[in-house]
Amino acid sequence: MNRLRHLLPAGLAAGVLVAATALAAPAATAAQAASGRATVVTALDYYSTGWTYLQVPPTTQVPGFAQRGFDDSAWPTGQAGFGTTNGTCPWNNQTNVKTPWAVDTDILVRHWLHLPRDAQAVRIQGTVDNDAQVYFNGQLVQSVKSGKCAAGAIDVVVPATYLDCCNLLAVRGHDAGVAAYLNLRVTYVKPTQAL
């Protein structure tokens, strides 16, 4: 690039630099966070409180539970992680399990979260034993078959078209026996404002 600057007028060189920067913009979100030009913010952390939840038999249908307008006012409120304190997974203990989730059942969980307008790369991460369907504002964003509590099996970036300022994260977790566990967090990238 230095050789090129000597050959081109200064205005043309600046234009080339601006064009190259614009072409790189779509990939900038992760790169910005890594370089310090953006900040990763936790919107909802592991072990968060304020979850509404309902345990149901695996075949029970609860139409619309993942939709924003669903009435969960009669559901109990709990703290993540949900699960059992027995099992072979390292998180099946009293330190990590804050709300009981019985084996051989499904658990429906819902949590509201606010995001700023400039939030980018909204990412849902977590662990489930055994399976989960993850919804964001009523849209299925990931189906997970993690088997026996594979750590980090839930990991999805929410499409930007699904985002709003007030958002609903809903998950249906399924347990196949022995032990159960579900814990989640949501992060986003906040661009650093130019001075």
UniProtKB/TrEMBL annotation:
Question: From which residue to which does the signal peptide run?
Answer: 1-24
- InterPro entries referenced in this protein's UniProt entry, alphabetically: Galactose-bd-like_sf (IPR008979), TAT_signal (IPR006311)
The superkingdom listed in its UniProt entry is Bacteria
Name the keywords, alphabetized. Signal
Q: Which protein, by its recorded name, is this?
A: Glycosyl hydrolases family 2 sugar binding domain-containing protein
